[in-house]
Write a structure and sequence with these properties.
This protein is an alpha/beta fold. The chain is built from 12 helices and 12 strands. Helix 11 links the parallel strand 11 and strand 12. It comes from Rhodopirellula maiorica SM1. This is Glycosyl transferase group 1.
């Protein structure tokens, strides 16, 4: 489960605790492999309970890699949401919309008008700016059109929320008339800490001696995980320490090939684990790695908060807001 999914799941449960009724309209599960999970019919919508939340899942074109395929994936969800949302969801009093992808705003505006309800647009990454910074797209006509869509969506929404000060500052600078609010990622501290370590997690990380440096999350292009492999290679044989990458994603295959090709024995990749197992894995580690391939304005990885709650020192290779938060907490 990625950071947005975890945050939204927790938000939904807390809203229910406060007396709200929560319903989710989303895609058939396919993250991070880019394939619909086997227990779901990839051609049909699916309605089920996730905890206390009624969840409506709509079919879409799935893609793990490739820019054009990803765009097709995003727009196929827009079509699915427009088609099945009014049929399978109750009319809400408020629509809370998660971006990216930015193109979900087409579905948001359609459904808000159809249901005659306000919508809050949550920005966890600034698109298209982040995509340009990561080299996914080049500045040009397409990105200018995306920027127009971005600003039009901000102005159409009832309010804008974001996961960092930098995101909200960017929105306010360009749309000062828009209502905004920072809602950071976070954790429940009672679920993390040294007391959550167990033998299963220790066995998964390995019994070799030396401190364990752990990265748990998406093995993606923006994470710059080759830097961890570079660090592992640079250590002298007499220096203790092992690196464990827990997760899956588009960069995993290339990382595994490089580890094998260059015999980087200090690095181990562990398959993605259920969300509820992450506290135990962190509790068995000695240092948490927060890796970013580049500085992306507004990006504050949720792994920072999990590491803090686990009482782990943090090794960060970025500046900006993530570095400021770690320095303020004195944990890295």
């Amino acid at each position: 489960m990625g950071a947005p999914q975890a945050r939204l799941s927790e938000l939904g449960e807390r809203l229910i605790d406060l007396g709200w009724e929560v319903e989710v309209l989303t895609a058939l599960p396919n993250y991070p492999t880019g394939k619909v999970f086997e227990e779901f019919d990839s051609q049909q919508p699916h309605v089920h309970q996730v905890g206390r939340i009624r969840t409506v899942r709509v079919p879409l074109y799935t893609a793990k890699q490739g820019f054009i395929k990803r765009i097709r994936c995003y727009f196929s969800f827009v079509r699915g949401a427009k088609r099945f949302g009014p049929k399978l969801c109750q009319r809400p009093d408020l629509l809370f919309v998660e971006s990216p992808p930015l193109f979900i705003s087409y579905a948001a505006k359609y459904l808000a008008k159809r249901w005659n309800c306000p919508f809050v647009f949550n920005v966890s990454d600034l698109w298209p700016e982040s995509a340009i910074r990561m080299g996914v797209v080049k500045p040009g006509f397409a990105t200018k059109m995306a920027e127009r869509l971005e600003l039009a969506t901000y102005r159409r929404a009832t309010a804008i929320t974001g996961q960092s000060d930098e995101i909200i500052a960017s929105v306010q600078a360009r749309c000062p008339e828009v209502r905004t609010q920072v809602i950071t990622n976070g954790v429940d501290p009672s679920r993390f800490g040294p007391g959550h370590a167990d033998d299963e997690a220790r066995q998964l990380l390995g019994a070799e001696p030396g401190p364990i440096f752990i990265f748990a999350g998406l093995l993606g292009l923006a994470q710059g995980l080759n830097q961890i492999l570079d660090l592992a290679k640079s250590l002298e044989d007499s220096t203790p320490g092992r690196f464990v990458l827990v997760g899956d994603g588009p960069a995993r295959e290339d990382l595994e090939k490089r580890i094998q090709r260059e015999s980087i024995d200090r690095v181990k990749i562990v398959p993605a684990q259920p969300r509820e197992r992450i506290p135990a894995l962190l509790a068995c580690a000695d240092v948490a790695i927060i890796s970013l391939g580049m500085t992306i304005p507004g990006a504050v990885p949720s792994k920072i908060y999990e590491a803090m709650a686990s009482s782990l020192p943090i090794l960060l290779n970025a500046d900006g807001e993530p570095a400021r938060r770690i320095k303020e907490a004195g944990c890295g």
